Amino acid sequence: MALETTLSTTQRLRQLPRQWQSGLTLYRGLGALSLLVALWGGYLFSGRPVTLVINGQPRQIRTHRPTVELAIQELDLTLETEDIVDPPPNATLSSGDTIAIQLARPVTIKADGQTRHMLTHRQNIADILAEIVLTANPRDEVLIDGKQVTLQSTLPTSLPASANQTINPLFAAATPRGAIASSRPETVQITINRAVLVTLHDDQTTNTFYTARPTIADALQEHGVTLFAEDKVTPDLETQPSPELEIRIERSIPIVVKVNGRVIKTRTLKKTVGDTLAYEGIALMGQDFSRPPANHALLPNDIIEIVRVRETVEIEQEFIPFETQWLPDEELQLDQREVRQTGENGIIKTRTRIRYENGQEAWRKLEDEWVDQEQKNRQVAYGTKIIIRTLNTQDGPIEYWRKISMLATAYSAATSGKAPDHPEYGITRTGLQAGYGIVAVDPRVIPLMTNLYIPNYGPALAGDTGGGVLGKHVDLGYDDDGSVPLMYEWRDVYILTPVPPADKIRYVLPQWPQQR
User: Fold this and answer.
1) Do both 375 and 467 map to the same domain?
2) 473 in the same domain as 418
3) Which residues pair with 63 in a beta bridge?
4) What is the pLDDT of residue 183?
């Protein structure tokens, strides 16, 4: 009956859909896995509890192994001979026991061209070197991971990569063989640079010193030697110091160069001004020169001035104004003129050389002077031929030898500038009484006491002068009891005979004032 029931159930399961059958199979597999995990976990947690301390870092584990050595093997941990285990590997374990493991620290030592590797529990550098029978001089340079230290320094504190990591007993079997290595402190590199004795020749001084620096540049810096960019060091600064090495420093000197409006402060190893300028790429062109000159031996703090020279040639001209030559001509009538030759100014040219130094005029020199154009005077002929003529006027015929067009104005004693009670009131230049018929003239044109005839005025005598009566100007006199006309007009003035001697005649009259 039970068999029938079982068969009936199997048959019913086969009758279920295919996806349901797959789900039931997976469910059975998970159930079996869970059972195995539970059994394995029960096995692990049934082990005795032990505290594992690696370099002071505790870890809780469980183990079924009876001894320290077997427990460590169960965790797949590998120790080096330098590592310290307490209690010893053959000690029997009990629940609650503690296994203390002190891992030795890996150290790499580079010295004398060799690299050595070791594991050590020592912290002092001098003790570590003594452990491998390696000595160091106090002058040697000791570095820990690139940082300079002394022989009495200790190794830096370093936490392992697996610090504070708890080993889970459930996965202890999967713990890699490198678990101990990851708990081991970080590797420290100790570098020893051997000090060597070198001799330094610094210009005129010589001294010796020990150095362990990797390059000459580092050695000089350590020794407090200041270098300038232009100083020359032999051997090259990147050279590694070696025993009995001689270092030579050729010192540059400070100088100042003034060029093209700039002031350059620099240093040089060159011995002369010319060599320094060539090194600095400063060219002297044409007549350029330097102060001091190119062959000058340089001294510290010398000032070199570059003088840029430029020369120009300047052509200048000076005009010599022509003169007018008056030539008497007996064939020309009086007061007639004839230009016989036009005047031309003369031209004198000069060539001057001008020298500029740094834009400022230094000197100028007259190189040549010549007449570029000769002066030609203006020649004007004037008539000296006098013809006596007769003119009928309302006052009767007159005989004259010269007619001059003159600017006519009018005046009286009252307008002459003196008060009536003045002792010289109305007295003219010739001593005559001012009034009608007495006219004022320029004696250089018409001599005083010359008889004249002026149309619309009548006979007149040149008997007076005036401060404003100049050239061809006549001031007609009027009586005080009559009105003085406002007059400013041009009139013909006839000079009556007799003709004066030739030396009393002004043949060339002034041209002012001029009639518009």
Assistant:
1) no
2) yes
3) 48
4) 77
* Residue 42: predicted pLDDT: 58
Distance separating alpha carbons of residues 440 and 408, to the nearest angstrom: 10
Length of the chain (residues): 516
3-state secondary structure of 101: strand
Instruction: Quote the domain boundaries for residue 355.
Output: 312-382
| Assigned domain for 70 exists | no
Condensed to tens digits (0 to 9), the pLDDT of residues 109-142 reads 998 889 999 999 998 998 999 888 898 888 888 9
**Mapped to the 3 state alphabet, what secondary structure does 253-317 carry?**
EEEEEEECCEEEEEEECCCEHHHHHHHHCCCCCCCCEEECCCCCECCCCEEEEEECEEEEEEEEE
What distance in Å separates the CA atoms of residue 335 and residue 506, rounded to the nearest whole number?
Answer: 10
pLDDT score at 47:
83
* 422 plus 370 within the same structural domain: no
Tokens of 261: 């409006």
Same domain, residue pair 408 and 462: yes
Total domains in the fold of the chain: 4
Question: Assign residue 351 a region: left if phi > 0, alpha if psi is -120 to 50, beta otherwise?
Answer: beta
In a domain, 173, yes or no: no
Tens of pLDDT, residues 190-240: 999 888 999 999 988 999 999 988 999 999 999 999 999 999 999 999 999
Distance CA(251)–CA(204), nearest Å, equals 10
Q: What is the mean pLDDT of the chain?
A: 87
Q: 258: domain CATH number?
A: 3.10.20
Does residue 512 carry a pLDDT above 80? yes
User: What's the CATH number where 234 sits?
Assistant: 3.10.20.90
Contact 78, 179 (CB under 8 A): no
Strands 458-464 and 438-440: parallel
Check if the beta carbon of residue 356 is closer than 8 Å to that of residue 481: no
Closest CA to 178 of 76, 103, 80: 76
In angstroms, rounded to a whole number, what is the distance separating the alpha carbons of residues 87 and 337? Answer: 153
**b/e code 347-366 from CB counts within 10 Å (16+ = b):** eeeeeeeeeeebeeeeeeee
Could you tell me which residues come within 8 angstroms of residue 306 by beta carbon, excluding any fewer than 6 positions away?
257, 258, 259, 260, 277, 282, 284, 288, 290
Helix/strand number for the chain, H first, E second: 7, 30
Q: Where does residue 237 rank: exposed (0-12), middle (13-18), buried (19+ CB within 10 A)?
A: middle
Of 497, 489, 479, give the one whose Cα is nearest residue 455. Answer: 489
